[in-house]
Amino acid sequence: MREENDIQVSIEQIDEALIVTPVGDVDLSRSPCLRQALKKSLSDVTGRLIVDLTDVPYMDSSGVATLVEAMQLARRNSVKLVLCGMQDQVRSIFEIARLDRVFSIVPSREDATQV
Asked: Which CATH number does 8-112 carry?
């Protein structure tokens, strides 16, 4: 049974990429679940980790911090981390913090597999 504060996260392998897809708001109560899924994924992937944010309508600073931590782990493990499918509200948070210059952000999964 899923806790009320858990976010649904699916993980799938496509070619040499591992795709992590969270569904729902990523806030203080839900970001630990995403953090756990990203850490597990980073220990399993060798090439590319794609985080598909298509179904994330809202993200607070704890969600952003979770993705920053994942990016740092990815760099240490020589894994390419790509974010895709950002909704406008989430993208604006990354732009305000100028993290759009740090992360590889693309419109779609297809684009993410080719960056």
From this structure: 3.30.750.24
Question: What are the boundaries of each domain within the chain?
Answer: 8-112
CA distances from 74 to 1, 12, 47, 68, 79 (A): 30, 17, 10, 10, 5
Which residue ranges in the chain fall short of pLDDT 50? 1-3
Residue 4: what pLDDT? 55
Phi, psi of 66 (to 5 degrees): -60, -45
- CA–CA distance, 48 with 103 (Å, rounded to integer): 13
State CA 77 to chain mean position distance: 16
Tens of pLDDT, residue by residue over 86-103, are 999 999 999 999 999 999
Q: Positive or negative, the Cα torsion across 32, 35, 36, 37?
A: positive
